[in-house]
Design a protein that fits this description.
Elements (H helix, E strand, L loop, with lengths): L1 E2 L3 E5 L18 E2 L1 E5 L11 E5 L1 E5 L4 E12 L2 E12 L13 E14 L2 E11 L4 E13 L2 E11 L4 E5 L5 E4 L9
Antiparallel strand pairs: 1-6, 2-5, 3-14, 4-13, 5-7, 6-7, 7-8, 8-9, 9-10, 10-11, 11-12, 12-13, 12-14
Length: 186
Amino acid sequence: MSVTTASFFKISASLAIAGAGALIIASGAFAQATSSKMKGLELSNDKPIQIESDKLEIKDPESKAIFTGNVKVVQGTTTLQAGNMVVFYKSGGGSVSSGDADIDRIEVSEKVFLSSGTQQATADTGSFDMTKQVFVLKGDKVVLSEGKNVFVGCQLNVQMETGEAQLEACGGRVQIQLDPKSRKTN
């Protein structure tokens, strides 16, 4: 099945997007790798998903759906944008066209942008492993931000069930810019 016009596709299956949440870092401004909790990152299996793209190609025999061109995914307050997105679903686990696909993993590429509330993340590529509940953003420069607080590395690994996150520098250094005015006062 190939859809060449702009398609608006609703799936209320187990496709879940993760939102980038606030990173609270207690260490210094620069480190080789940084670990923290990402509070805003959670799964939402119960909310409908809206997907827009320039083209959709469903390959049921290969258990995948390929969204290309200006991909935009919205679920609740979370938005994911990318040039391309491939949804891999489990064989025999339904299909995307019927809305009951059992999603195995999602891969996004070409200028990935993820937003949830006041938090944003950008990267070159991303993957969501729904079985292992792992979310990874990669790129020459992976940027996480909330307001004026900015975190830069090359790979962000997140355990979606717990929100545990690790930002890696990939040979360089993780860079963190914190705005002291963003701290909560008692």
